[in-house]
Amino acid sequence: MTLEDLKIFVAACEAGSLSALARQLGKTQSAVSQHISRLEKELGVPLLERSGRGISPTPAGEVFRDLSLEGLDAIEVGLKRVREIRDGEVGTLTITTGGTTVRHFLRNTIVRFRDRHPSVNLRFLPASSTRRCFDILRLEQADLAFVTTGETVRGIDERTVVQQQLFLLTAPDDPFAKRKSLCLADLQEIRYLGLSAGTSHRDAIQQAASEHGVILTPEIVFDDFDTASVFVELGMGHAIVPAVQAHNFAANGAVAAVLISDLPPVNVGWAYRHVAYLAAPARDFMQEFEQDLEEMKQLPGVNVHTLES
Fold this sequence. Notes:
By secondary structure, the chain is an alpha/beta fold. It has three domains: about 5-70, Winged helix-like DNA-binding domain superfamily/Winged helix DNA-binding domain (Arc Repressor Mutant, subunit A), CATH 1.10.10.10; about 90-160 and about 265-305, Periplasmic binding protein-like II (D-Maltodextrin-Binding Protein, domain 2, 3-Layer(aba) Sandwich), CATH 3.40.190.10; about 165-265, D-Maltodextrin-Binding Protein, domain 2 (3-Layer(aba) Sandwich). Helix content is about 45%, strand content about 20%. It has ten helices and 14 strands. The chain has helices spanning about 5-15, 20-25, 30-45, 60-85, 100-115, 130-140, 200-210, 225-235, 245-250, 280-295; strands at about 50, 55, 90-95, 120-125, 145-150, 155-165, 165-170, 180, 190-195, 220, 240, 255-260, 265-270, 300-305. A six-stranded mixed sheet has the order 4-3-5-13-6-14, with helices on both faces. α2 packs across α3 (about 30-45) and α5 (about 100-115) packs across α10.
Protein backbone atom coordinates (compact mmCIF):
# COMPACT_ATOMS: atom_id res chain seq x y z
CA MET A 1 0.00 0.00 0.00
CA THR A 2 1.46 3.36 -1.05
CA LEU A 3 0.43 6.98 -0.70
CA GLU A 4 -0.23 7.01 -4.45
CA ASP A 5 -2.60 4.04 -4.06
CA LEU A 6 -4.56 5.91 -1.41
CA LYS A 7 -4.68 9.18 -3.34
CA ILE A 8 -5.94 7.50 -6.50
CA PHE A 9 -8.54 5.51 -4.58
CA VAL A 10 -9.93 8.65 -2.91
CA ALA A 11 -9.94 10.52 -6.22
CA ALA A 12 -11.71 7.60 -7.91
CA CYS A 13 -14.50 7.72 -5.33
CA GLU A 14 -15.02 11.41 -6.08
CA ALA A 15 -14.75 11.09 -9.88
CA GLY A 16 -17.20 8.19 -10.13
CA SER A 17 -15.38 6.91 -13.20
CA LEU A 18 -11.97 5.31 -13.60
CA SER A 19 -11.71 6.46 -17.21
CA ALA A 20 -12.49 10.07 -16.27
CA LEU A 21 -9.95 9.97 -13.45
CA ALA A 22 -7.34 8.47 -15.78
CA ARG A 23 -7.81 11.41 -18.15
CA GLN A 24 -7.48 13.90 -15.31
CA LEU A 25 -4.25 12.30 -14.11
CA GLY A 26 -2.78 11.70 -17.55
CA LYS A 27 -2.62 7.94 -16.91
CA THR A 28 -4.11 4.92 -18.61
CA GLN A 29 -7.25 3.38 -17.12
CA SER A 30 -5.30 0.16 -16.58
CA ALA A 31 -2.70 1.99 -14.49
CA VAL A 32 -5.41 3.56 -12.32
CA SER A 33 -7.15 0.19 -11.89
CA GLN A 34 -3.90 -1.40 -10.70
CA HIS A 35 -3.74 0.99 -7.76
CA ILE A 36 -7.29 0.08 -6.72
CA SER A 37 -6.69 -3.64 -7.20
CA ARG A 38 -3.56 -3.52 -5.04
CA LEU A 39 -5.52 -1.97 -2.17
CA GLU A 40 -8.39 -4.45 -2.49
CA LYS A 41 -5.96 -7.37 -2.51
CA GLU A 42 -4.13 -6.15 0.58
CA LEU A 43 -7.32 -5.39 2.51
CA GLY A 44 -9.15 -8.50 1.36
CA VAL A 45 -12.41 -6.71 0.53
CA PRO A 46 -13.80 -4.95 -2.56
CA LEU A 47 -13.61 -1.16 -2.20
CA LEU A 48 -15.46 -0.13 -5.36
CA GLU A 49 -18.66 -1.29 -7.00
CA ARG A 50 -18.74 -1.12 -10.79
CA SER A 51 -21.92 -0.59 -12.81
CA GLY A 52 -23.02 0.85 -16.12
CA ARG A 53 -23.20 4.28 -14.49
CA GLY A 54 -19.61 4.20 -13.26
CA ILE A 55 -18.12 3.34 -9.90
CA SER A 56 -19.08 3.95 -6.28
CA PRO A 57 -17.52 2.92 -2.97
CA THR A 58 -18.74 -0.19 -1.20
CA PRO A 59 -19.63 0.15 2.51
CA ALA A 60 -16.05 -0.84 3.33
CA GLY A 61 -14.83 1.55 0.65
CA GLU A 62 -16.75 4.47 2.19
CA VAL A 63 -15.12 3.92 5.58
CA PHE A 64 -11.68 3.52 4.04
CA ARG A 65 -12.15 6.57 1.81
CA ASP A 66 -13.14 8.88 4.67
CA LEU A 67 -10.33 7.85 6.97
CA SER A 68 -7.76 7.75 4.17
CA LEU A 69 -8.72 11.26 3.12
CA GLU A 70 -8.12 12.64 6.59
CA GLY A 71 -4.71 11.01 6.76
CA LEU A 72 -3.71 12.04 3.25
CA ASP A 73 -4.68 15.63 3.89
CA ALA A 74 -2.47 15.81 6.97
CA ILE A 75 0.48 14.07 5.31
CA GLU A 76 0.39 16.08 2.09
CA VAL A 77 0.06 19.43 3.80
CA GLY A 78 2.80 18.51 6.25
CA LEU A 79 5.20 17.47 3.48
CA LYS A 80 4.51 20.60 1.48
CA ARG A 81 5.02 22.99 4.36
CA VAL A 82 8.21 21.26 5.53
CA ARG A 83 9.64 21.59 2.00
CA GLU A 84 8.75 25.26 2.02
CA ILE A 85 10.55 25.76 5.33
CA ARG A 86 13.56 23.87 3.95
CA ASP A 87 13.68 25.73 0.63
CA GLY A 88 12.69 29.21 1.77
CA GLU A 89 9.98 31.34 0.12
CA VAL A 90 7.42 29.49 -1.94
CA GLY A 91 8.16 29.87 -5.64
CA THR A 92 4.70 29.13 -7.07
CA LEU A 93 1.12 29.98 -6.16
CA THR A 94 -1.46 27.95 -8.10
CA ILE A 95 -5.13 28.94 -8.16
CA THR A 96 -7.92 26.94 -9.78
CA THR A 97 -11.20 28.57 -10.78
CA GLY A 98 -13.70 29.02 -13.59
CA GLY A 99 -12.40 30.16 -16.94
CA THR A 100 -13.73 33.72 -16.70
CA THR A 101 -13.35 34.37 -12.97
CA VAL A 102 -10.07 36.18 -13.50
CA ARG A 103 -11.82 38.80 -15.65
CA HIS A 104 -14.70 39.43 -13.28
CA PHE A 105 -13.08 39.04 -9.86
CA LEU A 106 -9.32 38.65 -9.74
CA ARG A 107 -7.60 40.74 -12.40
CA ASN A 108 -6.80 43.77 -10.21
CA THR A 109 -5.65 41.51 -7.39
CA ILE A 110 -3.30 39.73 -9.78
CA VAL A 111 -1.67 43.00 -10.87
CA ARG A 112 -1.06 44.16 -7.29
CA PHE A 113 0.14 40.74 -6.17
CA ARG A 114 2.66 40.54 -9.04
CA ASP A 115 3.98 43.99 -8.16
CA ARG A 116 4.49 43.04 -4.52
CA HIS A 117 5.65 39.45 -5.04
CA PRO A 118 7.70 39.44 -8.26
CA SER A 119 9.55 36.26 -7.28
CA VAL A 120 6.37 34.17 -6.93
CA ASN A 121 5.29 32.34 -10.07
CA LEU A 122 1.51 32.78 -10.34
CA ARG A 123 -0.31 29.93 -12.11
CA PHE A 124 -4.00 29.44 -12.92
CA LEU A 125 -5.76 26.16 -13.64
CA PRO A 126 -9.19 26.64 -15.30
CA ALA A 127 -11.94 24.26 -14.18
CA SER A 128 -15.48 23.87 -15.49
CA SER A 129 -17.15 23.32 -12.11
CA THR A 130 -16.72 23.74 -8.37
CA ARG A 131 -16.49 19.96 -8.04
CA ARG A 132 -13.56 19.91 -10.46
CA CYS A 133 -11.84 22.65 -8.44
CA PHE A 134 -12.22 20.51 -5.32
CA ASP A 135 -10.64 17.57 -7.14
CA ILE A 136 -7.68 19.73 -8.11
CA LEU A 137 -7.25 20.90 -4.51
CA ARG A 138 -7.46 17.37 -3.17
CA LEU A 139 -4.83 16.16 -5.62
CA GLU A 140 -2.50 18.95 -4.40
CA GLN A 141 -2.41 20.53 -7.85
CA ALA A 142 -3.48 23.95 -6.53
CA ASP A 143 -3.17 26.01 -3.34
CA LEU A 144 -6.41 27.97 -3.63
CA ALA A 145 -9.70 27.74 -5.49
CA PHE A 146 -12.21 30.50 -6.19
CA VAL A 147 -15.56 28.71 -6.35
CA THR A 148 -19.26 28.71 -5.64
CA THR A 149 -19.37 28.05 -1.90
CA GLY A 150 -21.87 26.22 0.25
CA GLU A 151 -21.14 22.61 -0.61
CA THR A 152 -19.63 20.69 2.29
CA VAL A 153 -16.73 18.50 1.17
CA ARG A 154 -14.54 16.54 3.54
CA GLY A 155 -11.00 17.87 3.64
CA ILE A 156 -11.88 21.19 1.97
CA ASP A 157 -12.43 24.45 3.88
CA GLU A 158 -14.33 27.40 2.44
CA ARG A 159 -14.72 31.11 3.10
CA THR A 160 -17.56 32.97 1.38
CA VAL A 161 -16.54 36.46 0.28
CA VAL A 162 -19.37 37.58 -2.02
CA GLN A 163 -23.10 36.82 -1.98
CA GLN A 164 -24.74 37.68 -5.31
CA GLN A 165 -28.33 38.03 -6.38
CA LEU A 166 -29.18 36.77 -9.86
CA PHE A 167 -30.12 38.94 -12.83
CA LEU A 168 -31.76 38.32 -16.19
CA LEU A 169 -29.50 39.31 -19.05
CA THR A 170 -31.48 40.64 -21.99
CA ALA A 171 -31.17 42.82 -25.08
CA PRO A 172 -31.47 46.58 -24.36
CA ASP A 173 -34.62 46.86 -26.49
CA ASP A 174 -36.35 43.86 -24.89
CA PRO A 175 -39.52 44.75 -22.90
CA PHE A 176 -37.96 43.16 -19.81
CA ALA A 177 -35.12 45.71 -19.94
CA LYS A 178 -37.52 48.45 -18.80
CA ARG A 179 -38.44 46.60 -15.62
CA LYS A 180 -36.79 47.31 -12.27
CA SER A 181 -37.15 43.68 -11.23
CA LEU A 182 -38.68 40.41 -12.35
CA CYS A 183 -39.92 37.24 -10.69
CA LEU A 184 -39.53 33.66 -11.86
CA ALA A 185 -43.12 33.51 -13.07
CA ASP A 186 -42.25 36.22 -15.62
CA LEU A 187 -39.67 33.92 -17.19
CA GLN A 188 -41.96 31.02 -18.11
CA GLU A 189 -41.93 31.80 -21.84
CA ILE A 190 -38.40 33.18 -22.33
CA ARG A 191 -35.90 31.71 -24.78
CA TYR A 192 -33.62 30.48 -22.07
CA LEU A 193 -29.86 30.19 -22.51
CA GLY A 194 -28.51 27.95 -19.75
CA LEU A 195 -25.31 26.68 -18.22
CA SER A 196 -24.05 23.16 -18.80
CA ALA A 197 -25.35 20.42 -16.51
CA GLY A 198 -23.40 19.80 -13.31
CA THR A 199 -22.55 23.41 -12.52
CA SER A 200 -23.54 24.82 -9.14
CA HIS A 201 -25.29 27.87 -10.61
CA ARG A 202 -27.41 25.81 -12.99
CA ASP A 203 -28.47 23.42 -10.22
CA ALA A 204 -29.50 26.31 -7.96
CA ILE A 205 -31.47 28.04 -10.72
CA GLN A 206 -33.25 24.89 -11.82
CA GLN A 207 -34.20 23.93 -8.27
CA ALA A 208 -35.59 27.38 -7.45
CA ALA A 209 -37.52 27.56 -10.73
CA SER A 210 -39.00 24.12 -10.15
CA GLU A 211 -40.16 25.12 -6.67
CA HIS A 212 -42.03 28.03 -8.28
CA GLY A 213 -43.57 25.83 -10.93
CA VAL A 214 -41.44 27.32 -13.70
CA ILE A 215 -39.72 25.09 -16.25
CA LEU A 216 -36.54 26.55 -17.76
CA THR A 217 -35.32 24.39 -20.64
CA PRO A 218 -32.20 25.78 -22.31
CA GLU A 219 -32.36 26.32 -26.07
CA ILE A 220 -28.59 26.80 -26.08
CA VAL A 221 -26.14 25.50 -23.47
CA PHE A 222 -22.86 27.21 -22.61
CA ASP A 223 -19.98 26.70 -20.19
CA ASP A 224 -19.42 30.24 -18.88
CA PHE A 225 -21.27 33.50 -18.36
CA ASP A 226 -19.15 35.42 -20.88
CA THR A 227 -20.45 33.17 -23.64
CA ALA A 228 -23.98 33.75 -22.36
CA SER A 229 -23.52 37.50 -22.73
CA VAL A 230 -22.38 37.07 -26.35
CA PHE A 231 -25.47 34.98 -27.15
CA VAL A 232 -27.75 37.60 -25.60
CA GLU A 233 -26.03 40.34 -27.62
CA LEU A 234 -26.69 38.28 -30.75
CA GLY A 235 -30.41 38.18 -29.93
CA MET A 236 -30.44 34.44 -29.22
CA GLY A 237 -32.43 34.70 -25.99
CA HIS A 238 -32.08 35.44 -22.25
CA ALA A 239 -29.58 34.24 -19.67
CA ILE A 240 -29.43 34.31 -15.88
CA VAL A 241 -26.14 35.55 -14.42
CA PRO A 242 -24.82 36.64 -11.00
CA ALA A 243 -24.67 40.29 -9.96
CA VAL A 244 -20.96 41.01 -10.55
CA GLN A 245 -21.02 39.55 -14.05
CA ALA A 246 -24.36 41.24 -14.76
CA HIS A 247 -22.89 44.64 -13.84
CA ASN A 248 -19.83 44.11 -16.03
CA PHE A 249 -21.84 42.93 -19.03
CA ALA A 250 -24.36 45.79 -18.81
CA ALA A 251 -21.65 48.44 -18.39
CA ASN A 252 -21.02 48.74 -22.13
CA GLY A 253 -24.71 49.04 -23.01
CA ALA A 254 -24.77 45.98 -25.30
CA VAL A 255 -27.05 44.12 -22.88
CA ALA A 256 -29.32 45.01 -19.97
CA ALA A 257 -29.52 43.27 -16.58
CA VAL A 258 -32.69 43.07 -14.47
CA LEU A 259 -32.90 41.66 -10.93
CA ILE A 260 -34.84 38.42 -10.48
CA SER A 261 -36.26 39.03 -7.03
CA ASP A 262 -37.30 35.52 -6.03
CA LEU A 263 -34.19 33.62 -7.04
CA PRO A 264 -32.00 32.83 -4.02
CA PRO A 265 -28.55 34.45 -4.07
CA VAL A 266 -25.43 32.45 -4.82
CA ASN A 267 -22.21 32.60 -2.81
CA VAL A 268 -18.66 32.61 -4.10
CA GLY A 269 -15.38 32.60 -2.27
CA TRP A 270 -12.17 30.76 -1.44
CA ALA A 271 -11.64 27.05 -0.97
CA TYR A 272 -8.45 25.47 0.35
CA ARG A 273 -7.10 22.60 2.39
CA HIS A 274 -6.15 23.25 6.02
CA VAL A 275 -6.36 27.03 6.33
CA ALA A 276 -3.99 27.01 9.31
CA TYR A 277 -1.19 25.78 7.06
CA LEU A 278 -1.77 27.87 3.96
CA ALA A 279 1.48 29.07 2.41
CA ALA A 280 2.32 32.76 2.81
CA PRO A 281 1.69 33.66 -0.88
CA ALA A 282 -1.80 32.16 -0.71
CA ARG A 283 -2.61 34.16 2.40
CA ASP A 284 -1.17 37.31 0.82
CA PHE A 285 -3.24 36.83 -2.34
CA MET A 286 -6.45 36.45 -0.34
CA GLN A 287 -5.59 39.54 1.70
CA GLU A 288 -4.86 41.49 -1.49
CA PHE A 289 -8.29 40.53 -2.81
CA GLU A 290 -9.91 42.34 0.11
CA GLN A 291 -9.27 45.67 -1.66
CA ASP A 292 -11.41 44.57 -4.60
CA LEU A 293 -14.19 43.55 -2.24
CA GLU A 294 -14.45 47.15 -1.09
CA GLU A 295 -15.34 48.20 -4.66
CA MET A 296 -17.80 45.34 -5.10
CA LYS A 297 -19.77 46.59 -2.10
CA GLN A 298 -21.12 49.38 -4.29
CA LEU A 299 -22.68 47.09 -6.88
CA PRO A 300 -26.44 46.38 -6.78
CA GLY A 301 -27.29 42.85 -5.70
CA VAL A 302 -23.90 42.24 -4.06
CA ASN A 303 -23.32 41.54 -0.37
CA VAL A 304 -19.63 41.40 0.60
CA HIS A 305 -18.06 39.46 3.48
CA THR A 306 -14.62 40.87 4.32
CA LEU A 307 -12.20 39.39 6.84
CA GLU A 308 -13.49 41.88 9.41
CA SER A 309 -17.21 41.21 8.78
